[in-house]
Amino acid sequence: MSKKPIKSLLTGTMAGMGLLATLISCTSSTGSQTDQGWVDLFNGTDLSGWEQVNGTAEYRVENGEIIGTTVTGSPNSFLATDREYGDFILELEFMVDPTINSGIQFRSIHDPSIMKGRVHGYQFELDPSDRAWSAGIYDEARRGWLYPLSLNPEAQKAFKQGEWNKARIECIGSSIRTWLNGVPAANLQDDLTLSGLICLQVHSIGNEKDAGKEIRWRNIRIKTENLKPSPPDDVFVVNTLANHLSEQEQAQGWKLLWDGETTAGWRGAHKDAFPEKGWTIHDGILCVEASDGKESQNGGDIVTTEEFSAFELQLDFKLTKGANSGIKYFVTENYNVKNASAIGLEYQLLDDEHHPDAKNGRDGNRTLASLYDLITAQKQNRFVRKPGEWNHARLVVRPDKRVEHWLNGIKVLEYVRGSEEYRELVAASKYKNWENFGEAGQGHILLQDHGDNVCFKSIKIKELN
Q1: For 34-223, which CATH class?
Q2: Among 3, 95, 200, 410, which residue is least crowded by beta carbons within 10 Å?
Q3: Is the pLDDT of residue 20 over 80?
């Protein structure tokens, strides 16, 4: 991708009274220098410094605003800066028609040799729908949703329908953070693309009645020098860096449950040591090896040496085609399982398309992210990544016994341990003969050996009070 440097213009000299003053006015193809290191990316008059790439949507300037207008028959359109930006803080205002979706691309790529020139990369979502995911982070034409705003309900309240909204994007190294009208929204740690274009998106439309809808942007400015990260806050962090804790995660009380290198903190279920076979550690990834597809007949399950009561657990997992495994919690090892998997509540890990267990149980309660054999995960296909790709599991167990299962940033089920409804589900399940199943005050966390190759990384936990 070619880069066009900011041009500098030196103007004006004045001499008098024995004093020489030099006035330097810095301008660029994308804007002019303002106070405190901010540079205007839009001059308020024309589209100098911007170039339309992809699509045929209309862009024009009126009253100090860039106005994008939807057209029929066009893919997503983008108005892009004429240079790339790496580390920066970007601020702008936007107003979007309440019936359409749009976005602000950043650290994005437009290269004719890649994806036929299709713009791809990070996007600050503009979502005026009832879903209210504005300021969430979407990976356009690449990985999909990285930070759906379902992870931050408070920020979902920040969008102002039919009014000007203020966006702030802070990119410093692998840290990507967003704000909407001053409210912290998304916090993403990701290093896939560390530099790229900034683009204003006009989304494609599927219905001719949506032609002529408008998105407006104004007061677009950027800062690229002497950047200082904003202070940590309480926003949930999505961290794609393997076995890594960001400063904000550490401040929130997260710790690595697996160090990414050794077997420290883990042992075999019903054993004193880590299994001598069946599990591998390589390049920061922990894998259970494939054997014969049976439970605990090779290396066997592994459990944490510690026990936990109220906590949040996160990890990334990668299934192979047709694989079966599970994340179990409140495992006490008190039950005699006779060479089968240890007993506990289970966040199911399964290739729903190719493993027959997806059709067993009741109403899909053995499918991916379900509470195995008890409650079916309500998930959308677009938030499930295929075998061979990494998925993200999140498990929340609150002190009041409320439990949540999350998959790739979306909550897929919730229940209350020990409630009447829960006990009725247990009574109708394969666990009906296990006394007080799932109701222990504390227990181990378990990764299951079900005879299939499944890999894990970035296993982290935060204890809740």
Answers
A1: mainly beta
A2: 3
A3: no
